[in-house]
Amino acid sequence: MPHLNMVQAINQALAQEMERDDRVVLLGEDIGKDGGVFRVTEGLWERFGAERVIDTPLSESGIVGTAIGMAAYGLRPVPEIQFLGFAYAALDQIFTHAARIRNRSRGRYSCPMVIRTPYGGGIKAPELHEESSEALFCHMPGIKVVVPSGPYHAKGLLLQALRDPDPVLFLEPTRLYRMIREEVPEGEYTIPLGKARVVREGKQVTVVSWGSMLERVLKAVGPEAEVIDLMTLSPFDAETVLASVRKTGRAVVVQEAPKTGGFGAEIVATIAEEAILYLRGPVLRVAAPDVTMPLPKLIDAYLPTMDHISNAVQEVLRY
Amino acid sequence: MESKLRELLSDAELLGFYEQMVLSREFEESCAEQYTKGHITGFLHLYSGQEAVAVGTTAGLQKEDYILSAYRDHAQAIVRGADPNRVMAELFGKATGICKGKGGSMHLFDPKLNFMGGYAIVAGQFPIAVGLAFAAKLKQEERIVTCFFGDGSMNQGNFHEALNWSRVWDLPVLYICENNFYGIGTVVQRASALPALHRRTCGYDIPSEKVDGMDVIAVYEAVKRAAAWIRERQRPYFIEAVTYRFRGHSMADPATYRSSAEQEIWRSRDPIPNFAKRLIDEGITDQAALDEIDARCTARVEEAVRFAEESPWPEDSAVWEDIYV
Ligand SMILES: Cc1ncc(C[n+]2csc(CCOP(=O)(O)OP(=O)(O)O)c2C)c(N)n1
Ligand SMILES: [Mg+2]
Fold it and tell me: Is the distance from CB of B177 to CB of B150 less than 8 angstroms?
C-alpha cells in the first residue's frame, strides 16, 4: 500500500471523487493553475480543466456564496479557503446561508458542499495563519465540522464528506500536512461522519482529542489512557466518549484552541450531563491560553505541549 | 543643461529618494537571507521591485497623515521612519521588535509615525482607513489617510464598501493601488473584470489616475498633486501605481506562473538603477557618491541584523500581555 502524506491523500480523494461524480467542482484562490498554496490541488486543473477546478478572484465571501448557488443548483462544490483565519471574511455566507438553506427551504433545497481549509498552529506563522477556531463553526447548527488527524482518515473522511447531502467544514491540520506518512489504500473507502474512534484502549482515563493534538496526545500518554479521536466535531459522537468515560471514570480533553468557549467545553459539559455519576474526579481541559496566537518564539508557551498533556493526565489519576 | 529633476526637488531630497529605495531593497534582500538561514520564519512577503511606490508616496504626504498597508509592509514602515533595527527584530520575533516580536512581518505598527498597521487579511485595511478618515474629519484635524493595497485586494467586498463610504461621506482617503499584476499566482486579467484598475472607481465617482510605479518621481508628483487636491476638497482620490514584484509572492512561492521573459522586461525597469542613471545623467551626482550611499545602506541593514540577532527573546509571560488592559 502506498505511503502518503495528508496533502497527497486529500489530493487523491478529490481526484477520485471528481472522476466518479462530475457534479464535483473545486473553487478557490490559486487552486487551479497554481495548484493551491499548499499544493493540495496540484495536477487537478490539468486533469479536469478550468471549468471544474476554478481559480476565483480574491474574495472569500464570493467563493462560499457562489458555492452555495452552485450547490442549490445541484453541483457539489468544494470551496477552498487558504487559511481558516480567512474564512472569517466568508462567515456571513457560511452562517447566514450555507448552514440554513435546507431548513429555510423546509428541505426543498440543500447545500451539499465541502469547505476545505488548512487550520491550526505550529507552522511558524503568526495569528490568522494559525487559527484554531473550530468551535465557532460547531456552534452553528446546519454545518458539519470534520477534522482528520492523519492521511488515512483524511482521505476516508473527505470522500464521505463529499457525498454528504449537507455543508461540511473540512479542517485540515496544517502542521500535519507533510509531517505524517502512512499507508493509504489506493482505492475508494469512506469513514462515516459523526463517529469517533478509539485510537488506543486503556482503563484508567479517557483522553479526548482531535486534529493535530492527537499526535501529541499519543506521544504524551501511557497505556493507562484510552485515547479517542473525535474526527467529527459537529455533530460529535457523544456515545463513544461517554461509553469510555463510564469505563475509566476519568477524562481529559485536549484542544489546541484557546480554552474559553472552545469545543472541549462542550465535551466536558456533555460528560457532566450524562456521566457525572461515573466520575472519580474533575474533568480537565488542556488548551491554549485565551490570547491571540503569537509569533513562533512564544508558540511553546501557547500551544499545549506533551508536558501539559501528561501533567493533566497525572493530575486526574490522583483521584 | 537644464535639469528636470532639479526643477522639482533639491539635490538632498533626490538623493534621499535614492537612499530610501536602496535601503528598502537592501533590507528586503537581507530578509530573504535571514529567512533562508531560519532566523525569520512564517510568511515573508518582500517588496523588492516596488520601492518607488512606497518612497514616492510617503514623500508626497505630511507627517500627520496616516498610512495603512497590507502584509508587504516592511519598506513602507521603514520609509515612513520606522527604525530598521526594530523592524528586523520584529521579523526575528525578538522582544525589541517594533511590536515586541509578537506580530511579525505582516503586522507592523508604529503609532509615533501614524503608521496604522500592516494587515495580513487581504483588504482588511480598507474600512479601517475610512474610519480613521471619518474621525479625522469629525475632529477637524487636517489629515489624509493613505491606504496601500494590491491589485488582488480590489476583488474583496471591503474594497467596494470603503470606496462607497468614503465618497458618500466625502472623506480624505488616498487610495494607493500597487498593481504588480498578481495576487499570489493569479494574474490580474483573470481576477478583475476591468484590468485597468484605476477605472474601477468610476462607480463610486472617485477620481483616479494611473502612474508608472517604477518611477519614483512620477509617483511622488502624482501623490503630491492628489494630496493637495484631497486637502482642498476633503474627498477621496485613487492612484494606481503600476509596478512589479521581483520575487515570488512570499518566500514560499517559487513563482512559476511568470515567464522569464516577462520578468526580464520588468527587471530592466528596476526603479533603482534607472533613477541612479537619471541622477547621473542630469548631473546631480556621480557614481562614486551613489556607491557611498549603497555602502551606507548595506551597513545600516547589517546593523539591523546584528541588533536583531543580539536582542533578547520575549519572556514566555509575554503571551499573556496586551490582550486586555
Ligand atoms: C482574506 C484573505 N484571503 C486570502 C489571503 C491569502 N493571500 C495573501 S496575499 C494574497 C494575494 C494578494 O494580492 P494583492 O492584493 O495583489 O497583493 P500583493 O501580494 O501583490 O502585494 C492572498 C490571496 C489573505 N491573506 N487574506
Ligand atoms: Mg498584486
Answer: yes
Q: Supply the pTM of this predicted model.
A: 0.96
- Which grid coordinates belong to A289? 491560553
Cα separation, A269 vs A246, in Å, equals 15
Total structural domains within chain A: 2
Give pLDDT, residue B3. Answer: 54
Q: Please check whether residue A162 is in contact with residue A156, taking contact to mean a CB–CB distance below 8 angstroms.
A: no
Question: Where on the phi/psi map is residue A234: left (φ > 0), alpha (ψ -120 to 50), or beta?
Answer: beta
DSSP state of A104: H
Determine contact, residues A165/A193, Cβ cutoff 8 Å. Answer: no
| Whole-number Å distance between alpha carbons of B195 and B180 | 12
In this prediction the ipTM stands at 0.94
Q: How far apart are CA A194 and CA B306, in angstroms?
A: 53
- For residue B44, give the nearest of B78, B81, B79, B87 by alpha carbon: B87
Q: Confirm whether A129 is a catalytic residue.
A: yes
The verdict on A238 and A122 lying in the same domain is no
**Any CB–CB contact under 8 A between A89 and chain B?**
yes
Structural domain including A310 reads 197-317
A308 and A171 both lie in a single domain: no
Query: Total structural domains in chain B?
Result: 1
In angstroms, the CA B53 to CA B66 distance is 16
Helices (H) then strands (E): counts for chain A: 12, 14
Question: Do A210 and A119 share a structural domain?
Answer: no
A161 within a domain of the structure (yes/no): yes
Residues A154 and A96 in one domain: yes
Exposed/middle/buried for residue B184 (C-beta within 10 Å: 0-12, 13-18, 19+): buried
Q: Name every chain A residue with its beta carbon within 8 A of the beta carbon of B38.
A: none
B135 close to B171: Cβ distance less than 8 angstroms: no
Q: How far apart are CA A209 and CA A206, in angstroms?
A: 10
Residue A31 is classified by DSSP as -
- Tell me chain B's radius of gyration from C-alpha atoms: 19
Give me the residue from B42, B94, B313 closest to A124, CB to CB.
B42
pLDDT of residue A127: 84
Those residues whose C-beta lies under 8 Å from the C-beta of residue B285, and which sit 6 or more positions away, are B11, B15, B279
Give CA–CA dist A103/A142, Å, rounded: 8
Total residues found in chain B within this entry: 325
- CATH number, position B116: 3.40.50.970
Residues 6 or more apart whose CB falls under 8 angstroms from that of A269 comprise none
pLDDT tens-digit profile of A70-94? 999 999 999 999 999 999 999 999 9
Pick out chain A residues at pLDDT < 50. none
Following CA atoms B127, A27, B191, A70 in sequence, which dihedral angle do they give, to the nearest 10 degrees? -80
- What are the backbone dihedrals phi and psi of residue B230, each rounded to the nearest 5 degrees, phi first? -65, -45
Question: Chain A residues with CB inside 8 Å of B101's CB?
Answer: 295, 297-298
Grid cell 537612499 is found at B19
Give, as one character, the DSSP assignment of residue A304. P
Taking 3-state DSSP, the helix, strand and coil percentages for chain B, each rounded to the nearest 5, stand at 50, 10, 40
A50 touches chain B (CB under 8 A): no
Do A85 and B124 form a contact (C-beta atoms < 8 A)?
A: no
Interface test with B, best of A61, A83, A128, A298 (most B CBs within 10 A): A298
Write down the pLDDT at residue A122: 87
Q: Which of residues 110-129 of B touch A (CB under 8 A)?
A: 120-123
